[in-house]
Amino acid sequence: MNELSNFHTQPAQPFFAQALLDWYPRHRRDLPWRRTQDPYAIWLSEIILQQTRVQQGLPYYERFLAAYPTVQDLANAPEQEVLRLWQGLGYYSRARNLRLTAQQVVNEYGGQFPGSYAELLKLRGVGPYTAAAIASFAFEERVAVLDGNVYRVLSRVFGITTDIAQPAARKEFQQLADQLISYENPADYNQAIMEFGAIQCTPVNPDCLFCPVREQCFAFQHGMVQQLPVKAKAKAARTRYFHYFVLRHGEQVYLRRRGGKDIWHGLFDFHLLETPAAELPAQALLTELEQLGAQVMTAKASEPAALVRHTLSHQKVEARFHELWLAVPLVPAALQQAGLEAYAAAQLDELPKPVIITNYLEQKAII
Ligand code: SF4
Predict the structure, then answer these.
(1) Is the N or the C terminus of the chain less surrounded, counting Cβ atoms within 10 Å?
(2) Which residues of the chain have pLDDT under 70?
(3) For residue 155, what pLDDT is reported?
(4) Do the beta carbons of residue 39 and residue 138 sit within 8 Å?
(5) Residue 232 maps to a domain
């Protein structure tokens, strides 16, 4: 293995940048954020693409730019509106940070994105990858991007066996990436290596036979394409069991805004009881209803709960929806204590919600 991990310490590999720069114009996908040097638009696209793949991210990018054409517009937007536009992308702290970063650009930089990697790193929610992307794409600064695609390509081409899940790997890969990046065209080089990883040197079934660096590629030459990059398995995500009480009365549905440091902070969902196992004991249901002062019309309460499984980055949610029709509305004191509010169906669409809540409301034809 030592032979492998030392391969990349050999003198600079000029073939690599040139091969990518030749490959890129012939294979690149035409994407709107590649047609601009506006750092605001580039930043928006990068934050969205951290959440989703290109095809899914495109409509979000277009919607955000249409709603907020400038960083000032985004800075002035209400948080709830930004969350609503972000809906479906998950990891909502990114959406909140998006708006806060826009405010930082307006308040601290006079509405102009800072023009260097070092300054960009000072922006809220902007890490080394995003700073490198903006600095190179918008300002042609020679600083190499490092994302999952780049790790994979470098690991395979240069035979690096370091576990990329380890924090120490970043330094090693960044050093190599900084040596390799083109002097003349850092922006295209960064775009090229990411695109190369996305469509040529893919995680599964890379197109080695038609690869321009096949002759020099360590993994291909040593039959190690499937083994590289080395990535230790993440710990299994824990499962959480959510029991949602979909409390309804007439045209109204009761929801609450999530607070605390938990997932989906600031989004709206139903009254929730979280249990250590999948089952909701009948006694727990009764106690909860009693505390809410909810008088349930039993005929509809006995319908089986709808089950939805949802996977987040570090946890899995098994949500069961118990639809409960109330004989009388909840009283204000109970609403206040549970943080609930009654909404007419027509109001629900405007609220930012986790995707499982939106899907449930749509399936039930409530919205
Ligand atoms: S030869 Fe295969 S593994 Fe090597 S860089 Fe090309 S596509 Fe990737």
Answers:
(1) N
(2) 1-13, 298-304
(3) 97
(4) yes
(5) no
Q: Which atom of ligand 1 is nearest to the CA of 152?
A: 8
Is 212 in the same domain as 273?
Answer: no
Together in a domain, 183 and 48: yes
Ligand 1 pocket check: which of 208, 215, 226 to mutate, most ligand atoms within 8 Å of Cβ? Answer: 208
Quick: pLDDT tens for 199-223. Answer: 999 999 999 999 999 999 999 999 9
What are the tokens at 341?
């509010």
Ligand 1 touching residue 220 (CB < 6 A): yes
* 8 A C-beta contact, residue 140 and residue 186: yes
Number of domains in the chain: 2
Q: Do 52 and 184 lie in a common domain? A: yes
Question: Is residue 200 in contact with ligand 1, taking CB distance under 6 Å?
Answer: yes
Containing structural domain, residue 320: 238-363
Cβ atoms within 10 Å of 160's Cβ, excluding its own: 25
Contact indicator for 200, 43 with CB cutoff of 8 Å = no
Which residue owns the Cα nearest ligand 1 atom 2?
Answer: 208
The pTM of the whole model exceeds 0.85 = no
Spatial separation of the C-alpha atoms in residues 91 and 141, rounded to whole Å: 30
175 and 115, same domain (yes or no): yes
Task: Please check whether residues 216 and 243 belong to one and the same domain.
Answer: no
Q: What is the whole-number distance in angstroms between the Cα of residue 217 and the centre of ligand 1?
A: 6
Are 186 and 43 in the same domain? Answer: yes
Annotated active-site residue in 46, 141, 288, 323: 46
Do 140 and 275 share a structural domain? Answer: no
Q: Which of 271, 155, 296 has the alpha carbon at shortest distance from 217?
A: 155
- Per-residue pLDDT of 155-180, as tens digits, reads 999 999 999 999 899 999 999 999 99
